[in-house]
Amino acid sequence: MHKKPAQATQEEQQAAIRAAGAAARVLLSALPQSDQDLDIAEKADGSLVSSADLASQSAIQAVLAPLGVPMLSEEAAAPDFNERKDWKRYWLVDPLDGTESFLKSRSGFAVNIALCDESGPIFGVVADPLSNRMFLGGVSVPVQLAPLDGSKVKKVHPSPIQRPYRLVTSWMEEAKLVDLVPPHIDPSEVVARPVSGALKFCLLATGDAEIHARTGPYMEWDCASGDAILRGMDIDVVDLNGHRLRYNSEHLRVTGLRCSRV
Fold it and tell me: Within the chain, where are the H helices?
């Protein structure tokens, strides 16, 4: 008998939606009008963190903590690997994906929340505050859209695949097109454009892109929610060798990925 695929409970799904919406509203209220509006610091890896990141983290924590599921978040110290390596279920969270976009009040920043089990992400929410919408989906959960208040959830019907295939990647991607496209696709049939953050996964979900790929590093919380959403479309997110991404690793890093609806 085959093991039934894992699925997030209704309580977990609703909590993730509420948490993402709450965090998105926090970020909207904190949008900077000038460089003096936020406390901004540089982390050890050179990335920026602001008081808005931390406020978003607090909003998410307040909603998810009562469920008793442990959390890995960009803005919280990760437990030692030996403590978490046997976790059966956990949250992967990025309270503010795209801090630089946020600091410039431009589109591209998001809130990422994914519920994971030992197989990887099983339910995810990506909240896009500036467009007042959240993308959600996961194992046995079709891709859906909702406003930030979580009401009027509606199923997404992706646009048909079009040619040339549209590839979305990082603004900092340096690889040539031939190194980004999946092996079964002719690079001459692909056009690429940069898009910020986890919204790249969401463009595949809505049918506004066919391929997402990058050769540079990600952290697991950068891609887990998008990975979960694409599972609702039976699309695998794989590494550059074609293996499905693995999560809750010791270093929490992902080195390159691809996903395609072609």
Answer: 10-29, 51-64, 81-84, 99-103, 177-180, 199-206, 220-231
Residue with tokens 């540089």: 42
Between CA 219 and CA 208 the distance in angstroms is 24
Q: How far is CA 231 from CA 98, 143, 221, in A?
A: 23, 9, 16
Q: Rounded to whole angstroms, how far apart are CA atoms 201 and 97?
A: 13
- Give the whole-angstrom CA distance, residue 62 versus residue 60: 5
Tokens linked to 52: 């808005």
Structure tokens at 2: 């085959």
pLDDT in tens, 79-131: 999 999 999 999 999 999 988 788 888 888 999 999 999 999 999 999 999 99
pTM score over 0.85: yes
Query: Residue 218 forms beta bridges with which residues?
Result: 254
Asked whether the beta carbons of 50 and 102 are under 8 A apart, the reply is yes
Cβ contact 204:261 at 8 Å: yes
CA distance 236 to 101: 27
Distances (CA, A) of 98 to 130, 219, 240: 13, 12, 23
DSSP code for 210? S
